[in-house]
Amino acid sequence: MATVHVEAAVAGMPAAVPSARPAGLLMKGAASGLLAGAVMAGTLMLAASSTGMDVLHPMRAIGATFVGPEALQGDMGIVAYGALLHATMSIAFGLLFVAVFPVDLRPLEAVVIGSGYAMFVLGFMAAAVVPSANGSFRVEMQPIGGAWVVAHALYGCALALVASRLGGRRSAGAGPDRADRP
Questions:
Q1: How far apart are CA 179 and CA 182, in angstroms?
Q2: To which H or E segment does residue 147 belong?
Q3: Alpha-carbon dihedral angle through residues 70, 73, 79, 81, given to the nearest 10 degrees
Q4: Angle 88-90-95 from CA coordinates, rounded to 5°
């Protein structure tokens, strides 16, 4: 079977423009979000443990979403549900990140953009989502205090660093390849 290259033969017909979203961007966003979510969950679990709480308490608190505060006394099923819900949201925000931001970032750029994005996500979730979906969440997680901010910042850093290492679309007006820059 022969391959034929077709060029625009009609004057004024625009040439084909490569997609700004290469194949695999979905997988890059999902993988970046999932790994960053694991970093965040680990940070929250470590913070809970360091305050004397059960290490799985953050997953139980997340597991109370859409279930109610009785889930806080739940078994491993609630922990698994909380972990799955956290992973799902981490992936969703990872997909949004790679769809909106350039992912061919240098490490410092990734840390700054990723942590800023994560602070936006924290504010959005704390103001618009958590109060209506999980009324007991803030009270249950109050003992770990500022660890929430640190965990979200680490999520953003990990998200952007992993996304930039996996590659993706070029940023607008990027010019020469980043590999050519010092």
A1: 8
A2: helix 147-166
A3: -20
A4: 95
DSSP 46-104: HHHHHTTS-TTHHHHHHHTTTT-GGGGG--HHHHHHHHHHHHHHHHHHHHHHHHHS---
pLDDT at 86 over 80: yes
User: Which pLDDT score, from 0 to 100, does residue 172 have?
Assistant: 46
The residues near 33 (Cβ < 8 Å, ≥ 6 apart) are 90, 91, 92, 93, 94, 95, 97, 159
Q: What is the pTM of this model?
A: 0.78
pLDDT digits (tens, 9 = 90+) for 107-122: 999 999 999 999 999 9
Structure token pair of residue 38: 């694991």
Q: Each residue of 136-175: pLDDT tens digit?
A: 888 888 888 889 899 999 999 999 999 999 875 444 444 4
CB 43 within 8 A of CB 150: yes
Spatial distance between the Cα atoms of 9 and 151, rounded to a whole number of angstroms? 56
CB atoms closer than 10 angstroms to residue 123: 11
